[in-house]
Amino acid sequence: MIFTKHSNAFRWIIVIASFAIVSLILWKTYEFFQHFKDEERTKMENWSFAQTEFINSDTNANLNLTLKILNSNTSTPMIVVNEDGNLNSSNNIDLNKIEDPIYLKKLIEKFKNENEPIIVRADNRIFSTIYYGNSPLLNKLKYYPLALLLIIVLFGAVIFFFYSSNKNATQNKLWSGMAKETAHQIGTPLSSLIGWTEILKIENVNPDYIVEIEKDVDRLKTITERFSKIGSLPILEKADIIKETIESYDYLQTRSSKLIDFDLIIPEGEIPVNLNKQLYSWSIENLVKNAIDAMKGRGKLIVEISQLENDVKISITDTGKGISKKDFNKIFEPGFTTKKRGWGLGLSLTKRIIEDFHDGKIKVLQSEKDKGSTIQINLKRAQ
User: Using 50, 70 and 90 to split pLDDT, how confident is the model at 184?
Assistant: First the structure.
C-alpha cells in the first residue's frame, strides 16, 4: 500500500541512485585511466633517462641496469627521432609500415595528441625526441566506460522489456476479465428482453415496434458475443469486407444525427478478407463514433474502401476538430482521450482487434486542425 502510494517517488529515487552509481563508476574509471597514464609517463621518462645515461657513458661498465631499462619496454609503442627529424629507432611498432614516411608522419602526430613528447638531451644539446602512444592495455581501458555504459543500457533495456511485458500481460488479463464480466452482466437482462419481446407479440402490439425492438435485441446479442471473444483468440473466416462494412455503416447511419452527411465509397464486386465479423464491425463502429464525436454531431463523414493488389484499405474521414500530429500514435494508447467523458479505450481496442487479431495495420493517415482527420485500416486480401 505504501509502495503504491509513493510509487512515483520511489521511481525517482531509483533513477537518481542509478545515475549516481553510474557517474561514480565512470569517475573512478577515469581516475584509474589517468593514474595508469601517469605510470606509463614515468616509465617512458625512466627510459629517456636510461638512454641519456647510455649516451653519456664512456665505458661499458655498470651498464647492466641501463640496458635492462632500455629493453624493458615491451608494450608501449614509441618512436625515437634524432635532432634532424629523422627516424632513429622504434619499439612495438610494425617495421614494414614505419618505413613509409607518410605513415610515420601520421603516427607521430597521433602520438603527440596522446602524450607530450619527451626530449632527450646529451652534452647540453637535444639528442633525440621520444614520441610514444598509449599501450594496448591503456587503449582497452579507455573504451571500458563505453563498454560499461553499453552493458548498463542493455541491462536497463532488459528490465524495461520485462516490466513492459509484465504490464501488458496484466492489462490483457484485466481487459479479458472486464470483457467477460460485461458479457455475463449483459446476458441476464438480454434473456429477459427476449422473453418480453415474445409476450409483446402475443399482446398484439404494433409489429413495427416489435421489429425495432428485435433489432436492438440482436444488437445486444452481437455486443455480448464481442465482449466474450476478448481475451481468447478469435476465429477468422473468409468474408466479404464490403458487405460487413456496409452492415455496420447502415446501422450507425440510421441511429445517428440527421446533421451528419454520410457518404460510402466502395468498389464493385466482392473483396474477400479473413475476418472475425463481430470484432471487425466493432472496430468500424468505434472509428465512426469517434468521427461523429469529433464533429460534435454535425459535418460530413466518408467511409471508403479501396484495393491495391493484395492490400485492402478502409478509410474513415470526418470534418471534425482534427488530431495534433504529436498525438497520431498516442490516440491508440489505452486511457488516452481528449473528451471530458470517456475512458480512452475505444481506439486502443480497435488497434488490438486490427493488429493483434487480424494481422493488419491502423494509423492516422492525415489530419488538419479544425478541418478533419482520416484514419485508415490496412488488411490483407484473402487468397
Answer: low
